[in-house]
Write a structure and sequence with these properties.
This protein is α/β, with parallel strands linked by helices and 297 residues long. Helix content is 40%, strand content 26%.
Length: 297
Amino acid sequence: MLNLNDLVLFVAAVESGGFAAASRRLGLPKSTISKRVAELEDALSTRLIQRTSRSFTLTELGRDFYDHARAALVEAEAAEAIVRRRQAEPSGTVRISASVPVAQRDLAAHLPRLARAYPKVRVELDVTDRFVDVLQEGVDIAVRSHFAPLPDSGLVQRQLLVEPIILVAAPGYIDLQGMPQSPADLQDHLGLLAAPSAGVWRLFGAHGQHAEVSPQQAMVANETVVLIAAAIAALGVVCLPERMCRDAIASSQLVRVLPAWNAGTVTTSLVMPHRRGQLPAVRATLEFLVECFREIT
């Protein structure tokens, strides 16, 4: 039977990217961690890590072993948590990953409330627009906005909300250029685009109609706040999720364009490794986030 402590050291070395970083993370001598991992390899009669003075990489078998070792540690945490669940309030670190818009729009105002509700839970929020590998990067909960269904990755998926992507423009722009009466009219209007490749808008009507239009490119920006500011400044028509435009519409800075049409939908989901949801701190954070999204829809 393998020593569970050796699995802890091995997983820490992998997730930290080396023995030195794992030493700092765990507060143990680097030599101790290196020796214990070497003993683990001897016990298994196989090489798990290819290491030189400049590199630290898992072997193919090492990658498979890491996945199972990390799962075993999570199961051990869950086993302990089951015993303590009714005695102790949620505690520990919960790692959350979210995109910049989700963090700014949905999480910033609510996470302080989570801290007050669960003072022993420490949230580590990683805000990034890159794709995050939940398993490899040790993320407990990822909040993802997506246009197509998420792939079947073996992760737990919990849908939070689905919202339409709408067309909006400033009243001043409409006064100058006129209100489009059909999707085809957008060909003669200025468009504010999220990417150079987003020059074609695929629109869907309330009765199953669909159309593709290419507005004249007025600005390209891959940042929502910039696009909304450009639209408010009457630079053109922009295509964005409805909640991003809600405040500007409520204050009459923007108006709906072709309100019977939308550009599809965007879905926000929580994604997490199955076993992590058994831990009290993760479960409490998960339910808190679900409730927050109920409030903001």
